[in-house]
Amino acid sequence: MNWFESWFNTPYYHILYQNRDYQEAEYFITHLLEELNLPAGSKIIDLACGKGRHSVFLNKKGFDVLGVDLSDESIAHNKQFENETLHFQVQDMREPIDTEPVDAVFNLFTSFGYFDDEKDDARVFQAVADVLKPDGYFVLDFLNHSFVRNTLTKTSSEQRGELHFDIQKKIEDKRVIKDIRFSDNGQNYHYQERVKLHTPEELVALAEKHGFEKLKIWGDYRLGGYTENSPRSIIWFRKK
């Protein structure tokens, strides 16, 4: 089983990352929508939606949203939020998405770079291209490889209630590898995250092979300009 299939489907993943900055995320999405200027009611796919918080927020902004994720546990959780213009389904991002063509696909907060095989990366872009309308938008929000290399903290720990997470990070084979260890009810656990350090140039080249053109790249969640010192690499593509 791939690391993301097991780790993302556990309650511990969501416990560890429960302190994410929702206010920053909503600020980012709000201003991103202003840049894209999508008409009200546009159809959006939230690709790798997790527990659905961004899908719910996009829906509240007036969009028809489909949130998809590989984790059946997350999708089962998200079903409580569904309404006439908000739906969720289990989906491997490498496979064709079973829905009518959409106006935009968002892949947010480093939900890419998980695959060892480069062909799987290409399959994601193909799946996105296939589900988008002509001139549709694809926004890929990814880490900035140079920022990660320059700021990597090798060891850290996080306390979440009674759970203590010990975390070790390293860069190996052009991937950030994060080992996460903790104990619960006398049992020891070890999970790993592996994210490939794609450069913006690599992502743009991959997108172009699948019929996209780059419109803009931002370097942070306030939509500042991109530099090698930016914390993020947020690329706005259009399907030709």
Describe this structure in words.
- With 240 residues, this protein is an alpha/beta fold.
- The protein folds into 2 domains: 3-145 and 199-239, Rossmann fold (3-Layer(aba) Sandwich); 148-193, no CATH class.
- It has helices at 3-7, 11-16, 22-36, 53-60, 72-78, 118-131, 145-151, 200-209, and strands spanning 43-47, 64-69, 86-90, 102-107, 132-143, 155-160, 163-172, 175-184, 187-196, 212-218, 232-239.
- It has a 7-stranded mixed β-sheet with strand order 3-2-1-4-5-11-10, with helices on both faces. The protein has a 4-stranded antiparallel β-sheet with strand order 6-7-8-9.
- β4, α6 and β5 form a beta-alpha-beta unit.
- It is globular and about 50 Å long.
- 32% of the residues are buried.
Strand and helix map with partners:
Blueprint: H1 3-7, H2 11-16, H3 22-36, E1 43-47, H4 53-60, E2 64-69, H5 72-78, E3 86-90, E4 102-107, H6 118-131, E5 132-143, H7 145-151, E6 155-160, E7 163-172, E8 175-184, E9 187-196, H8 200-209, E10 212-218, E11 232-239
Parallel strand pairs: 1-2, 1-4, 2-3, 4-5
Antiparallel strand pairs: 5-11, 6-7, 7-8, 8-9, 10-11
